[in-house]
Amino acid sequence: MTQLVLTQQRNHIFEIVLNRPDKRNAINMDMFAQFDAAVTQANRTPNLRAVVIRGEGKAFSAGIDVSNLLMLAEKYGLHWQQRMRRITDDFQAVLTRLERRELPTIALLHGFCLGMAMEIALACDVRIAVEGTKLGLPESRLGMIPDVGGTTRLVRLVGPARAKELIFTGRQISAAQAEAWGIVNYVVAEDELRDKADALVAEICQAAPLAVGMAKRVIDGLSDIDRGLQLEGWAQSQLFNTADFMEGAQAFMMKRPPEWQGK
User: Fold this and answer.
1) d(CA 210, CA 230)
2) CA-to-CA distance for 224 and 50, rounded, in angstroms?
3) What is the mean pLDDT of each run of 10 residues along the chain (263 residues)?
4) Residues assigned a catalytic role
5) Shortest CA distance to 108 belongs to which of 60, 38, 172?
């Protein structure tokens, strides 16, 4: 099997590396399964103080491989669109496991961080981006919503008004704007990205690990993430059965503007 996700341990840091650089790390079913396995491996590795997620090549990730939607039929059956609640639950569960690990998680972003890739980043505790990185949740332009925690976690970070603007428009924003909105913690030069993460982890290591873990639990517990995820799953299950979703997917594949019907 092609290694679409790599893992390595550096001292107290566990690295998860998206490794499909020829496709700008676009996420297909195989990559997401390997990402899930990497998260599980991180959860089972002792003596860690942080998990760092990054991407090889020219981008963190361009998001879900839309052509991969056709592969959902192979895993979930011919009528997969009627099983969207289960599909969404399966995808959400991976990022929920990532988020609920008591270890601090840090996403290192460069190039593009779009769609599901941004949902991965939002499930992390800290985001560090290279200057010029483009971030966004373009799902509405495909007739969908961000349903792997993107809608819920973005609201938690920036509040309803900013989240609505970004999700309604599906636009891409710069790393600088993402930092101003509170989505990104730091914007750095490309050659400083990993050093910045290492320096932050070194600072975290000066604190007691149990205190850091409990602080993360308390802070995350202030938001009703579970209810938000349920609402995302419900909404997406409705949208996947609309004519607009089929039009959005076809338009994307054919590289033409969609013709929305509102039904």
Assistant:
1) 30
2) 24
3) 91 97 94 96 94 98 82 70 79 95 96 98 98 97 94 97 98 98 98 97 96 95 92 89 88 89 91
4) 119, 139
5) 60
Cβ(131)–Cβ(190) under 8 Å? yes
Q: Find the farthest-apart pair of alpha carbons in the chain and give their distance in angstroms, rounded.
A: 56
pTM score: 0.94
Token pair recorded at residue 37: 């396995």
pLDDT of residue 86: 81
E-assigned strand segments in 80-215: 105-109, 112-114, 126-130, 134-136, 172-174, 186-188
CB atoms closer than 10 angstroms to residue 250 = 13
**Dihedral sign (CA 209, 210, 212, 217):** positive
Question: For residue 155, what is the enclosing H or E element?
Answer: helix 150-158
- Residue 218 burial (CB count, 10 A): 9
HEC profile of 98-131 = HHHCCCCEEEEECCEEECHHHHHHHCCCEEEEEC
pLDDT at 73: 67
Cα–Cα distances in angstroms (integers) from residue 73 to residues 93, 121, 122, in the given order: 20, 27, 28
| pLDDT for res 78 | 66
